[in-house]
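Recap quiz, item 2
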Amino acid sequence: MKILVAVKRVVDANVKVRVKADNSGIDLTNAKMAINPFCEIAVEEAIRLKEKGQADEVIAVSIGDKACHEQIRTALALGADRGIHIEAQDGLQPLAVAKLLHALVQREAIGLVLVGKQSIDTDNNQVAQMLAALGGMPQGTFACGVEVQDGKLKVVREIDGGEQTLLLTLPAVVSTDLRLNEPRYASLPNIMKAKKKPIDTLTPADLGVSVASRLRTLSVEPPPERSAGIKVASVDELITRLRTEAKVI
Amino acid sequence: MKILVIAEHDNLSLKPATLSTVTAALAIGQPVDVLVAGADCAAVASAAAAVAGIARVLVADHPAHAAQLAESIAALVAEIGTQYTHILAAATTTGKNLLPRVAALLDVAQISDIVAVKSADTFVRPIYAGNALATVQSEDPVKVITVRATAFAEATSAGNAAGVESLNLVKEQGLSAFVDQQLSISTRPELTAASVVVSGGRGMQSGENFVLLEKVADKLGAAIGASRAAVDAGFVPNDMQVGQTGKIVAPELYIAVGISGAIQHLAGMKDSKVIVAINKDAEAPIFQVADYGLVDDLFKVLPELAEKL
């Protein structure tokens, strides 16, 4: 079985982002970039499935400008076998991303797609579900457990009240939640080896996909600031203020 | 304009997040229909018909819908969805699982987690963990939208008598099968609906120490939450996580205990009315958003708070 794992280049989770002065978007000038944390979990899970002998090949794909080679290389250093870069403008909508991934799934005869459940920049949480729909595949979203069982995929999902277990036919799409695994660190020899692994470059046109969108961002604004309140000296003062001042207890 | 709201339910009762979704739908326009897809879900349909502002309730009651699997329900929603201009669901794990699949089947975008309706085609949604609010406009023939429940008041759940029509449509896909689920059983209010939330972070040091939070929560009738750090450390299950990738809460009172205040956590609670922070580190970022801060050892403060409340 071939696994396709998608990695998105996003601003590092520890960077406090600022809105551009003209409200056209987020100012990412010189911001530290990284693999989206949920995508890293997806890469780790793909590699573990290969190590368990349940997958033959792990292909890492990223969509965006040339800079996302860096994230593909990271995935290769973690253990993916080869990379695909789909060269496109940054900021594609989830539906366009899902269409591109769908084209790759068909082209490469993929058995399992692993993606992060959401990216920490646009917070959409859509690609896995959309890709599954386009491919007529089942979806195991927000996964905290993945196991291949007799040609099917058992997925444990994080749901609002607890956990749910589903059995999916293959090919399938899984989106990863944070408890699925703890990603490894790339070793220096593996980072060196990754430099020799192949990365193919494709365009949306090569895949016959239109990435046009009917959704426009009109403006991006900072949220209302919450200002710091006061420090209280004791539990007694806290209770008194909550009762008489804030009137919430 | 014709709007469809997907009811969130467990075949027994209508979830409050649906009421907030109805409010968002009514802000867009009318008429608003509600779809209840489930098995033996007549009670849910009756509850939906009573919600103020609803024009019609469609009930797809069939054993195949018992687990509300995304593959089958999405196919059903997409089939009836072309008659609507807007399809809305709450941005819960159920809505987030279902609606993007519907959008892709309709070849339209999905607008995730809206917090405001500007007009019938323009909406506001948080991005970058709530560090920015994007105003987006959709030209799609059908607008598919998930709604952040805490941003909209709940519609009145009684008084209406909308017509209930059964929808004999089953689109079983045979792609997925329900195996089982483990739901945490708690006598406490549900985290996203509670008026008081007490949350613990890495500072709690262990899952056992959450007993200290429980004692405070008992006195306040509060739900208990946790930061991602506490979940990552294995102290508590993930369904207690408040934050960017967990649950979004906006209670009257939020008490953060031993939580440093990473931006990912703030994303999930900064719309709370009153925030209290208890942390021994006076420099912790959580104090920058707290209305009341108490710099002290939580292991001393929590028992005292439980005793004096």
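Chain B is about 25% helix and 30% strand.
The two ends of chain B are 51 Å apart (CA to CA).
End of item.
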